[in-house]
Amino acid sequence: MRVPVVWRALVRLMPREFRDRYGVSVALFHRDRLAEAVRLGEPAHRVWRRAVADLLASVAIEWWRTAVGQRTEISVVPLSPRLAAEDRMSIMAQETAQAVRSLRRSAAFTAAVVVTLALGIGSTTAIFSVVRSVLLAPLALPDADRVVEPDSRKLGTDQILSVTYADFMDWRDQHVFSQVAVYQPTQMDLTGPSDPVRVQAAGVSPQFFGALGAPASTGRVLQPSDYEAGGGYSAVISDRLWRTQFGARPDIVGHVVEINAVKRTIVGVMAPDVRWPVDVDLWLPMRITNELDPDLQRRDNFVFSAIARLKPGATLESTAAAMSTLAARVASEHPDIRAGVTTVPTPVISAMLGPTTPRALWILLGAVSLLLLIGCVNVANLQLARAAARRRELAVRVALGASRWRLVRQSLVESGALGLAGGALGVVLAIGMIRLIVAIAPQDVPRIETASVDRWALAFALVISLGVSLLFGLAPAVHAVRQRDHLAMGEGGARTSAGRGGARTRRTLVAVELALSVVLLVGAGLAVQSIARLRHVDTGFDRRNVLTASISLPGIRYDSKAKVVAFLYQLRDRLAAAPGVEAAGIASASPLGAGGFYLGREMVAEGRAPTPDNEVPINWNVATPGYFAALGDPLVAGRDFSLTDDSAGPPVMIVNQTFARRMFGHANPLGRRAMSSRDERVEREIIGVVRDVKYYGAADSSRSLVWVPYAQNNAWHQGIITVRARAGALEALPVVRRELRALDPNIALANVVTMDEALARSMAGDNLVAILLATFATLALALAAIGVFGVLSYAVAQRTREMGIRLALGARPSDVRRLVAGETAPMVCAGVAVGLLAAFGLARLARSMLYEIGPNDPATFFGVALTLGLVAAAAALVPARRAARVDPVIAIRNE
Amino acid sequence: MAPAPKPAWPEPESLLPLKSVDTLILTMLAAGDRHGYGIRQDVLAYSNGQIELEAGNLYRHMRRLESKKMIEPAERHDSGDDERRIYHRLTPFGRRVLAAEMLRLRALVRLAVTRQIIAPGRA
């Protein structure tokens, strides 16, 4: 009977010393054991289980002993470099043990290296985790990569439009997708177990859940019967709503609630992670009774969003081609409204992320990688300095016949141990950093709350720990080999020859480090200036003490325009008259991206043909009198709406300055008329001009805005209450609640936000990027300073004798200082120059993220160069002074 | 040629108490040279199958006993056996340590008798 191969393989895991002595015995022991087990009827699996567990435990114990235990006998490494494969393991173990011991001896060095690496690895791991959870993690949908969001694009612009119902019907009827649906997000008031609450809802067409592919976790999703006229009203709710509003009651299916004053039966609860394509809490069937309705047939009524699943066998490209062909046909049939418009499918994950978030995250990942590299360079330098201090140890080892490879390996093993220690500490840091990032990240970054140190992050940390170990271990390794050659050739006694090459390497490394720091500093400088400009941006109105909150009137009770207008105007009057309120108004949408509803329309001035050339695209808003007063009266000409601007009065509108300029140039716009050329077709007189307000957020560019009075618009059921309080904005909240409840207790107040908050929210993303970049850049600067200081200190210490001789021969201290400074200057200049060039090339990547500052802003570049120069000079000062203070007598005597 | 310096053996008492596995190994070897598997079989027989030593653990302890010079490799005995396997035997030092351990245990047993934990044996 032979010893089983598996067992022999396991025995090989033992340390060599042990195996040489007892390997055969252990192997034969097991063979005998198996043979006897057969005789005694002991099950073979029991033998194996016990033996393997026992052996593995012994392997671990023996290796531990080899690594840290006190060796009783001195092991003699044979001079012959050719070793059998199994011997290498045991040499590695010896080397690891040696590395650990030697690192334990120099605690300060080890601590410096581990902390530097931990900062780099921790930051990189944290940003990587965020990148992975936000950008790279797959969506929790079956075949999520086959789910797309079709939308419309204006060719030659970056304008993205929604889709028209007519286009949707084409896609559906011509089977462009396997499933396709349209939906419309809205807000609805849910009255059920508690006071009315405003919830985000979506009306969805029949194939919505099929296209998404997400099943309900309780009950069912919507099915065709839910869409039949005369059928009951049903609703699907989110897991979040189920938990917050219904206490996660298990009998939720069949429960009847009132949604916007309509009784609906809950038929299902979606799984918790269904947040796409819109993050809503309520899905309702969108009942289309007549698809021939002219509004639905219009090819320019871009008011629907769409979601679709690719056909089996179809690719994104083939589907895009099919959609583009259909769009081209529509464009040729309706050249007046659809010329230059095409339709494209966007993968749902790209649509969800948008363009800014991925760019910002990749830039951050690039920035932390630079920081990590800088850390590596510093560590490499520290190791070089230490290697020089260990020349004697090296000499002994070379004398004993250590091979080149052995020296390289020893250096790499030591680096590996440092890298892993830094990585372990870095992971701890990353956990904290991720929490911090999630806390200050803007709310609209999808999935960021899922970022954590998971197995991906751990694997990443491990890989980069080992990767950077190789990176910063290489320079010392090469250095060791070079030293070996010098020593081998009998130059070991020469004080300077070997030191020269090392010094050059160290200086090059510091220059590299400085260059990397310049890139980071330029990036951070641009981001910080951009955010500073955003903070001081003129929003076009007075934000102080302004509170906004949205309401939505249920159509079933407010079923006429008269009722809607009466309610809104009455509410406004009560608010304006309430104590503590300076001014109040209601508008359909709020500036600074605070939400609401507006229409994208085209307008032409009176007397001009309604052709695309004459049309000006605008955002159409609706407002009550007093709204502009609540915004701090940004009116620059004309008057506010009044109660007489009603359906009986002449049609009027208030426009902003950009609109006036685009429509009428420098002519006075007051009294001029314009109309919405494609739908309303009513000539409206401009009665007022307001300053340009930042509409979508602080960084918004100027766009044309138009407001018409609620009394002159068709019934819009939603509005944003805007109140300017005499004291703090939130002081007005109880007043708003009280007045609303007094008029209609069944209307919920939602999205309560002050204008200051809205502004902060719109800047949160830029803010986060700026904070992180600035942090990374500060760390980089500190590391670079340490690098310069370390290299010069070391050089001065090495040349104490030379300095002493110079001073003894009559050099003045200032000469010595100049000598040291002279060595610093080329290194710093080269690093900064290379860094500026690299930054010049890279900054363009960040152009779209910058506000009112060019990517190659000369002041920033100059400032960074100056800062680094000063910091480097400061770091060089101490070693230079030390060199000048050398006492010649002591210096020479010490040798 | 100068005589080799006599190795300075530690006092046997300084190695006490022995681990129970060590005691078992030494006791079995006291009866004659054994290889590892033989020790296992002896221990099994002595303990009525209660104590099963496995290879890794056993050789780990033997490695330790050998490094402390309590056991050493022995010459081959029966040529019919696999010639690669190592037999071990007790060194004189090992025998002294084992004896010291046994004296310690006997004192302990006597104490147990005095405390009426067990009845006195016949010996």
Quick structural summary:
Chain A is of the alpha+beta class and 895 residues long. Chain A contains 26 helices and 22 strands.
Name some characteristics of this structure.
heterodimer, A: 895 residues, alpha+beta, 4 domains, six-stranded mixed barrel, 26 helices, 53% helix, 15% strand, B: 123 residues, mainly alpha, 4 helices, globular
Explain what this protein looks like in three dimensions.
- The complex is a heterodimer of chains A (895) and B (123).
- Chain A is α+β, with helices and mostly antiparallel strands and 895 residues long.
- Chain A has 26 helices and 22 strands.
- Chain A has a six-stranded mixed beta barrel with strand order 3-4-9-6-8-7. A six-stranded mixed β-barrel of chain A has the order 14-15-20-17-19-18.
- In chain A, a hairpin with a 6-residue loop joins strand 18 (673-676) and strand 19.
- The longest helix of chain A has 44 residues, at 755-798.
- Chain A is globular and about 105 Å long.
- Residues 70-83 and 491-498 of chain A have low confidence and may be disordered.
- Chain B is mostly helical and 123 residues long.
- The longest helix of chain B is centred in the C-terminal third of the chain and has 23 residues, at 92-114.
- In chain B, strands 1-2 form a two-stranded antiparallel ribbon.
- Helices cover 47% and strands 7% of the residues of chain B.
- Chain B contains four helices and two strands, in the order αααββα.
- The chains are: A alpha+beta (895), B mainly alpha (123).
- The interface between A and B is medium-sized, with 22 and 20 residues.
